[in-house]
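User:
Hi there, any thoughts?
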Amino acid sequence: MKVVIVGAGAVGTHLSKLLSREHQDCVLIDDNEERLGALSEYDVMTYNASPTSIKVLKEAGVQHADLFVGVTPEETTNLTACMIAHHLGAKKTVARIDNYEYLSPQNKDFFRNMGIDSLIYPEVLAAIDINNGLKLSWVRQRWDVHDGALTLLGIKLRETAEILNQPLRDLCGPDDPYHIVAIKRDEETIIPGGLDELRVGDLAYFMTTQEYIPYIRKIVGKEHYADVKNVIVMGGDKTSVRAALTAPDYMNVKIIEKNAERCEKLNELLGDSDTMVIHGDGRDLGLLEEEGIRNTQAFVALTGNAETNILACLTAKRLGVRKTVAMVENLDYVKMAEELDIGTIINKMTIAASHIFQMMLDADVSNLRSLMLVDSEVAEFIAAEGSKVTKKPVKDLGLPFGTTIGGLVRKGVGMLVNGNSQIEAGDSVMVFCHEAKLNNIEKFFKKNAIW
C-alpha cells in the first residue's frame, strides 16, 4: 500500500514511523527540512517542499496513493492538499482539522464531494479518552468496544491488590471473567504466560466485560478510590473545551486559564454548560486551595507545556487528588512522566495517528488504539467468512509472536477468549499486538488471504 503524508509534525512523524515498521510504501512531505531530518533512520521517502505544490505531489506519486493524509498545523493547507490529491487520483484522503463544525454528520457529503473522505480532530479524540478515564477514577487507561461489550483497563497495581505474586494460570483461567493481555514493568513490556506473576508497581492491562468491572476493582484493591465528581482542568485549550462539553452531567468541571482574553472566549464557548471558568494560574497553590482542590477527585493538566503539566499533576497528588491526567505532547517526556507516576498520560497526536493508521489496513478493522506506554496496538478485527482465523481453535492458529487475542464480540455480546475458543465469521475480535506487524496479523482475518 502506498501512503502519502503532508506535514512532518507529531502526527505525521508518528504515523510515518508506524508505516515504516509495517514496511509500507510511505512518502512524507514538509516545507521544513529540520522536521524531516528526524526520520532519517526510518524507511520513509521525504520531500522538502510545499504540501500544496501540484508538481511535488505528482513527483511523490499521489496519483498512485491508496491513502493521502493531510496533517500539517494549518487546516486550510490540509483541506487544499486533500482536494488536489483526490483530483490527481488518490483513492482515499483524510484531513486534520480544528473546526468542530466540520464534523457535523450533515457536512459529510459536502466534504466528500470536495474529495475529502475523512476528517480528524485530535482534540476531540483526546477529550473522549480523558472523559473515559475520569469515569473510572482508579484506572490509568480505559477503552470500550461495542458500547462496553468488552473493556480494556490499564491499572497501576499497588500493595492493596489481592492478585499479586501468584501465577496467572491460577488467577485467570478459561472460566474467569478477565484476561491479563499485557504487563508494563519498569521499561519492559511482558506478554504474559501462565507462569508469570503480577508485582507491585506493574501497569497491567485487563480485558473484561462491563458486568465484571466492579469485580476487577475489588481484586486490584481500588475500592477506596472515590468516584470522580469534582474536576479541575488547568489550561483552556480546545481539548479542555471538548472535554468540558462532553463530560458526564454528574461531574462539576472548573477550568483555570491564565490568559484573560482566552477566559472570555471560554465563557462564550461554554455558555450553555455548567463549567466554571477561573482566571488564574493552575500552579498557584493558594488559588487551588481556594477552588477546593482538597475536595477534588480529578486534576487534568492540558496546557501546551509538558513540564508544566507534569509538575502540576505532582502538586495535585501532593494535595490529595487521586486521579491526575497530564497532556504530554513531547514524546521524550512520556517516559519521565511514567517514572514519576503522575497518573494518566494523554498524547493527542499518537491517538490521531492510530485513528488514521487503521484506514490503511486491508482487513475489516473498525478500531485501533495505540498503547503508548507499552509500545503496542490493540486492534478490532472483523473475521471474514472463510478466513484462516475461523478454521481452527485459537491455540492452533499460529499467531505471530507478541500477539494475544483478548476477547471478541458476537452478536453484541462480549466474551473472553482462551486457547480452545473458536472464532466465527462476523465476530469482532480484539487483538493485542506487541512487536508484531499488523499487516501480518490482518491476513488471519481476510477472506482468501495469500500465505
Notes: The first helix runs from residue 10 to 21. The two ends are 17 Å apart (CA to CA). The chain has a mean pLDDT of 89.
